């Protein structure tokens, strides 16, 4: 993975949500450390998957990149331009290049606007006048996402969940972005519809060459969609690698446990995988454990894990670009990764 | 999730097919789509109570607006004391000579005891004054409530806290007592104690006082609505595309607030009509000789044991109007928000 000129460069990204309390004078009594020091890059045209269980800071990361939230610390740069604390006016030129697809297709479309208005809204705001008028462009976009262009004047309530999500995709595409942050774009949809929307996103990514930050908790969807995958746990990236590397050779105990939890649909001769059952719950992000954040549930944890936070580095035996944050990385091949057809033709 | 199978792509083709079909189909009906507003209008038209109430309310507004015209055709005005000017209409005790409050072909609703004014035109002009005051107060209240409520909800933080406390105080304030105690003081701020207060000043002060105590409830309601809407993803979607706060408020939030605004204001107007009449009755609102619903009821209260007819006309018409307007408000709510049906 050449990191010569990444599209998006995130270093040490941190977001703490203050917790207020006290009476009669309210003051900050603590902070939810939703995201704590993330480092990653997204290259042009690349799809980076972001996985982790709920509450690990995936969505917060997405909202920080799109600057819906103000980062507490760290740096976000887009094409070399620092956008960490840029105001609305400064952000304007970058806004059109970083777009977002939302999780809930029922909440992400304004119920009082027609589809045409929803999709042409971004063009109106950024004063973009495509050739042939905005309406023509909207009809083109509707066709790209597989909707009937005649639905231009319809309202969101007349569409199903999958169709609404397609409208959301069309809105994100309206500004011809270079990077789309997809925040669990399919988790609110039926399984049968998920495949359609994932394939649509993949088509968009491949044909238009748009980079994606694909946030999901479904490992199979991420594997199908992303070229690179980052695994998050309690506000930190524990492992980041190329897709096949990560799924084939997980080095972090958490990644391994996560992969072992994916149910197997096949019944064949291969012996059943050993399922790693993690003990206990995710610790509160209000007061995360010292050192390695995973140590409270890790079967390998030692004194060192409690005192020293493991850096995200290329540990011994990893391919270049495969970074793991662990003092005692797993060795290769103890657990076979979930089997999935990797036929790209079926996806197209 | 299973890896996508070829069948997953099938619905895509179906939509493309239907696209072609609808382009070629001659009838545009397939593409007919209804906005939430149109749907609400259809629901409203089916609601018989609502339509009848709307008819009554419109009737009242029409006669209020056309009062001078009707009075001209009818040939009388609400100020002339016909009973005193024309002998034979009032008896020695200053009550109408004819039965039923002096109803005749000339005086349709009879004549007022003592002063002998024409009840019909007095009532027409009374409705006109009352509706004018109530409508003005409603419009002002709604405007103020929307602006303050949306601001508090959208900005949040300290602004919201401050506005919230002001609303708390206003809502716990005994407004009727305030009106009775302080309206004369307010008038005296503008007019010396021994002079008459002009009608326009009374009207303006009334409207402002009603507004000052009325905006709090609508502002609180809208603040809550905006708090709920602000976190919705379509607002974030607008922000991601670079929308300004003004655009988000006017184009994204406000269209979603019309329903509560409309419902609140249709329920507020009849409340203001009764409040205004109540104040006139207590003598701190509009006063005689300006025609007004409340003034009429106050006058009627002086004679009702001897001449009930004079009380009946303003009383029944006001009950009819307020009832119709409240039913209309209910119907509007049901039409706009079908889920809230009890």
Describe the protein's architecture and organization:
The complex is a heterodimer of chains A (348) and B (342). By secondary structure, chain A is an alpha/beta fold. Chain A has a single domain (6-16, 29-263, 270-291, 308-322), classed as Rossmann fold (3-Layer(aba) Sandwich), CATH 3.40.50. Helix content of chain A is 28%, strand content 21%. Chain A has 11 helices and 11 strands. Chain A has a 7-stranded mixed beta sheet with strand order 6-7-8-3-9-10-11, sandwiched between helices. In chain A, strands 2-1-4-5 form a 4-stranded antiparallel beta sheet. Chain A is globular, with a radius of gyration of 21 Å. The relative contact order of chain A is 0.14. Mean pLDDT of chain A is 85; it is low at 334-348. Chain B is mostly helical and 342 residues long. Chain B has one domain: MetI-like (MetI-like fold). Mean pLDDT of chain B is 84; it is low at 1-31. Chain A: Residues 8-259 form the ABC transporter domain. Chain A: Residues 329-348 are annotated as: Disordered.
Helix content of chain B: over 70%
Tally the helices of chain A: 11
Structural class by helix and strand composition of chain A: alpha/beta
pLDDT averaged residue by residue of chain A: 85
Strand content of chain A: 15-25%
Report the strand count of chain B.
0
What do the pLDDT scores of chain B average to? 84
Distance between the termini of chain A: 25 Å
Name of the CATH class of chain A:
Alpha Beta
Uncertain runs of chain B: 1-31
